Amino acid sequence: MTASVLVVDDQALIRSSVRLLLEATPGFNVVAEAEDGADALAKARAYTPDIVVMDVRMPYLDGVAATQQLMRYTRPPKVLMLTNFDADDRVLDALEAGASGFLLKDMCLQQLAVALRTVLAGGRVVSPEVLDSLVRRASAPDRSGSDGREQQLALLSSSERRVLGLVGVGMTNAQIARRLCLSPASVKTYVSRMLSKLGLDSRTQAAIFAYEAGLAEN
After folding, report:
1. Cα–Cα distance between 164 and 211 in angstroms, integer?
2. For 187, which of 10, 93, 157, 194 is 20 to 30 Å away at the CA?
3. Going by C-beta distance under 8 Å and a sequence separation of 6 or more, which residues neighbour residue 91?
4. pLDDT band, residue 137 (cuts 50/70/90)
5. The domain 3-135: what is its CATH number?
6. What pLDDT shows up at residue 138?
7. pLDDT by residue (tens digit) across 48-78?
8. Whole-prediction pTM
C-alpha cells in the first residue's frame, strides 16, 4: 500500500530534497507541499495525507502549533518532525503535541524511509543524536534523582525492566517481541504496565528514563 505524504518546510530547497528522497522510495507518494504551519493545515484538510513530514521552526505558525491543531482533525495524520539542531528545545513540545517522531534534516534516504514506516506502523522514532541531547540536558544539572529512579525501578518486574531497556534504544513492540521471543500482545502489556508504574506518559519519556538509569541496551 502506498502512503500519502505532505511535506512542510519554509525552505523550498528542503521541501524539494525530501520530495526527491521519497519519490525514489517505493511505498510513498508526496501529494502536496506546504511552506508554513497554516498552509500545512489547509493542505492536510484538502489532501488528507497519511503522514506529514513537518519542519519544527517556521514563520506564522510553527510545526509544534500546527501539529497540535492537526491532532484535532477527525482523521489526524501521523507527524514526523524535522530539525537542523540535535539540541532543539522544541523536541519535547513536539512530541507532547502529538508528533510520532523527530529526525535531523541531514538524515539519509534509508533513515527517512525507515522512520516513516515505523511511524505509520504506530511506532515512535527519535534520532540518536536528538535523544542523546535530551538525555544530556536532563542529567546535566545533577544526579540527585538517581535514588528516586532506583526506587521506581524496584517497582518493575525483571521482564518490565528488560522491555524498558529495549524501549530505550528505540525498538518497536514488534522488534522487542522478536528479541525476547514474546507475543506482541505481551510486549504491549509490559510496556503499558511499565509506563504506569513509572508514572510516564509516553515511550519517549521511557526511553529517556532508560538512558538515565543505565538500562538502555544494544
Report:
1. 10
2. 93
3. 83, 102, 126, 130, 133, 134
4. low
5. 3.40.50.2300
6. 56
7. 999 999 999 888 889 999 999 999 999 899 9
8. 0.64
pLDDT at 32: 97
What class is the 144-213 domain?
mainly alpha
- Average confidence (pLDDT) over 82-91: 69
More confident residue, 212 or 26: 26
Q: What is the 3-state secondary structure (H, E, C) of the chain?
A: CCEEEEEECCCHHHHHHHHHHHHCCCCEEEEEEECCHHHHHHHHHHHCCCEEEEECCCCCCCHHHHHHHHCCCCCCCEEEEEECCCCCCCHHHHHHHCCCEEEECCCCHHHHHHHHHHHHCCCCEECHHHHHHHHHHHHCCCCCCHHHHHHHHCCCCHHHHHHHHHHCCCCCHHHHHHHHCCCHHHHHHHHHHHHHHHCCCCHHHHHHHHHHHCCCCC
Look up residue 8 and give its amino acid.
Answer: V
